[in-house]
Design a protein that fits this description.
heterodimer; A: 218 residues; alpha/beta; Rossmann fold; six-stranded parallel beta sheet; 9 helices; B: Rossmann fold; globular
Chain lengths: 218, 168
């Protein structure tokens, strides 16, 4: 059994706390559909790529321990770098919820004459079990929206460090690709974090700022 | 590295404002990792793969941390996938502190390939770098690397060798 990806993202959007940050993938159906569902809200960083999405989310969660971080990764991406689970299990950020959109295939490369190209989760790899073995305290595999809702409610009510492997049906994106690149997405997300955290992150002209300060003193 | 160099590196990291360090310890910088891990001024996240370390540092920067990744130069090859994806594709500053295994003076055969690859690889990744072979230059070099890293929103590196690691 597998859930519909778009409906799964709608359920997440309805439950994610308003002050949470989201680390999502750079491209692909999940990124495009999540952006459409959330009306391109700047609290989502569309910056993760194959093998680095959870790593980015762990760093973000450790840097902002008072703020919930939700990570949207895919099975092919996570499988590329399983060491990310090791650092997640080692650090156990109490504010991190990882959702793996696990359609058991490499969706974004398209389908060939033999159908989809399967990932290792279509065979024997169990991402929730791998995460648990790496030290992630709360893990689950869900195959229905009811089970997903229960996991999300628990994640956002109790906090904690959790990985939810969501078995989803494959299928092309229902919406058009986004037309921004990683630089624009980075600036948008960091400016949003600067605003809600009330602190400066990008420092692109320190000397000029100091000179202005000295000029004022004179 | 020699204790004096490790202390100079810690001073450079602090003066650069770096408060979040990840990395994978190697024979030369093991003592630096220990100093950083036990210093409350740093959040220290050890990793078993330098690519994951780069991703963690990049994510921490997005949340407002100033970050450094400490590793052997062989680790640059592992991290290069993520430096290319995140660094060249997004633009995130991380200061890289690399042991320059294979530099002139190397005693170990296995370090030679690391020395052959590291500078061309840094150039390919468009990562500017300083080679530091004198302990007295290390603190300043880290500060300078961190400064350009922030100004260009891309990693910059310090390669550590010579008098920082050998008493010959």
């Amino acid at each position: 059994m597998a859930v519909d990806r778009y409906e799964m993202l709608e359920h997440l959007a309805a439950r994610v706390p308003g002050d949470a940050l989201v680390m999502a993938t750079y491209i692909g159906a999940v990124s495009f559909e999540w952006a459409a569902i959330t009306d391109e809200h700047p609290r989502t960083a569309h910056l993760g790529q194959m093998g680095d999405v959870i790593g980015l989310a762990v760093g973000l969660a450790l840097a902002l321990p008072h703020r919930r971080v939700v990570c949207l990764d895919g099975d092919g991406s996570l499988l590329m770098e399983l060491g990310q689970l090791v650092v997640m299990g080692q650090e156990q950020p109490k504010n991190l919820t990882v959702m793996v959109v696990d359609n058991e295939c490499y969706e974004s490369i398209g389908w060939g004459p033999d159908g989809r190209r399967p990932t290792a989760t279509a065979r024997r790899a169990d991402l929730a079990a791998l995460a648990a073995a790496a030290g992630v305290p709360d893990t689950a595999t869900v195959e229905s929206l009811e089970d997903l809702d229960r996991e999300l409610d628990a994640a956002f009510a109790d906090g904690g460090c959790r990985l939810i492997d969501v078995k989803t049906a494959p299928g092309a994106s229902r919406v058009a690709p986004r037309q921004t690149d990683g630089f624009e997405d980075k600036y948008r997300f960091v400016r949003y974090v600067e605003k809600v955290e009330g602190r400066r992150i990008m420092r692109l002209a320190e000397q000029d700022r100091q000179l202005m300060s000295e000029t004022r003193h004179h | 590295m020699l204790d004096q160099a490790a202390q100079a590196a810690v001073a450079g990291l602090k003066e650069a404002g770096i408060d979040f360090v990840s990395g994978l310890p190697d024979g030369w910088q093991r003592n630096l990792h220990e100093l950083v891990e036990n210093d409350p001024d740093f959040t220290y996240v050890p990793v078993c793969n330098e690519g994951v370390g780069f991703s963690v540092c990049a994510g921490a920067w997005l949340g407002g941390a100033k970050t450094a990744l400490i590793m052997e130069n062989s680790g640059l090859r592992v991290a290069s996938e993520y430096i290319a994806r995140i660094g060249l594709g997004t633009g995130v500053p991380v200061t890289l502190l690399l042991s320059y295994r294979g530099d002139v003076g190397e005693t170990e055969h296995w370090g030679i390939p690391h020395g052959i690859v590291v500078e061309p690889l840094l150039d390919a990744l468009r990562v500017p770098y300083l080679v530091v072979r004198e302990t007295g230059r290390l603190r300043q070099a880290i500060k300078r690397a961190q400064r350009i890293s922030e100004a260009q929103l891309h990693p910059a590196a310090v390669l550590v060798s010579g008098d920082c690691v050998w008493e010959d």
